[in-house]
Amino acid sequence: MDRTADGVLCHECGQRFASLGIHLARAHELRVRVYRDRHGIADEESLAVVSAGRPRRRAHPCGRCGTILTVPGKLCDDCRVTRLVELENRQAALAEPRPVKARWRRLTGEERDDLLRAAPEEVGSLIAALQRSRVTSAEIAAVLGRSQKWMRAPIPAPTGEPRTEGPQPSLCTALSTAVGETTATPPG
After folding, report:
1. What is the pTM of this model?
2. In this structure, are residues 175 and 120 in contact, taking their beta carbons and an 8 Å threshold?
3. Burial class (CB in 10 A: 0-12, 13-18, 19+), 4
4. How many Å from the N-terminal Cα to the C-terminal Cα in the chain?
5. CA 124 – CA 58 distance, rounded (Å)
6. Which residues, in sequence order, are bridge partners of residue 28?
7. Burial bucket for residue 187 (CB in 10 Å: 0-12, 13-18, 19+)
8. Model confidence pLDDT, tens digit, residues 5-62
9. Which of 60, 63, 94 lies closest to 80, judged by CA?
10. CA 134/CA 146 separation, integer angstroms
11. pLDDT, tens only, 77-95
12. Which CA distances in Å does 111 have to 142, 148, 169?
């Protein structure tokens, strides 16, 4: 490798450049890897001139410990790490704990039995109570042998208030129809 203060010699055209990588790509349409292989240049050798100019950053003291720095920044690496740890500890001390997020839960064996044994007129209030206690409608529907779509129509919202959108058959009518009973009143 022929390197002087004037630049690095290009073995393709014989000119000198401060950085061969850009020259090779523009003038010879070569990648650095191909150039190195073609001319037997090791990967450890630089294809650029080492700058002999003055440092780009004026020396300045660290804001905490006074160590002289020649890199951008107000703090040395050790002081920066210490400062970040102090900030994290301060923020953790001030942060309020997050409220526990309400999670869905599974039906207990006793609740499953109650749901299966309940009379048709009691099922609606039992389902509403289970939903308020964070049991999913999908699990309730599976125990009753019904689809989730069936659950959405006749069952009150988990808040206990009746749903207002769409036609709402009564829960007893839907359950009676599902069981095979008739809900029609005798003529009279």
Report:
1. 0.33
2. yes
3. exposed
4. 113
5. 78
6. none
7. exposed
8. 788 899 999 999 888 889 999 999 999 999 999 999 998 888 888 765 555 668 889 9
9. 63
10. 19
11. 999 999 999 999 888 888 8
12. 13, 19, 25
pLDDT digits (tens, 9 = 90+) for 147-165: 877 777 655 555 556 555 4
Cβ–Cβ under 8 Å, residues 124 and 156 = yes
DSSP helix/strand/coil, 26: helix
The encoded tokens of residue 109 equal 């064996």
Task: Tell me the backbone φ, ψ of residue 175, rounded to 5 degrees.
Answer: -70, -40
Angstrom CA distances, 36 to 11, 48, 57, 109, 121, stand at 10, 13, 33, 74, 86
Is the sign of the CA dihedral 91, 93, 95, 100 positive or negative? Answer: positive
Q: Name the strands in the sheet holding 7-9, side by side, starting at the edge strand that comes first in the sequence.
A: 3-4, 7-9, 16-17
Task: Specify if 100 maps to a domain.
Answer: no
Same domain, 10 and 33: yes
Amino acid sitting at position 123 = V
> Does residue 95 sit within a domain?
no
Range of the domain at 34: 3-39
Q: Does residue 115 sit in the same domain as residue 170?
A: yes
Query: Residue 3: helix, strand or coil by DSSP?
Result: strand
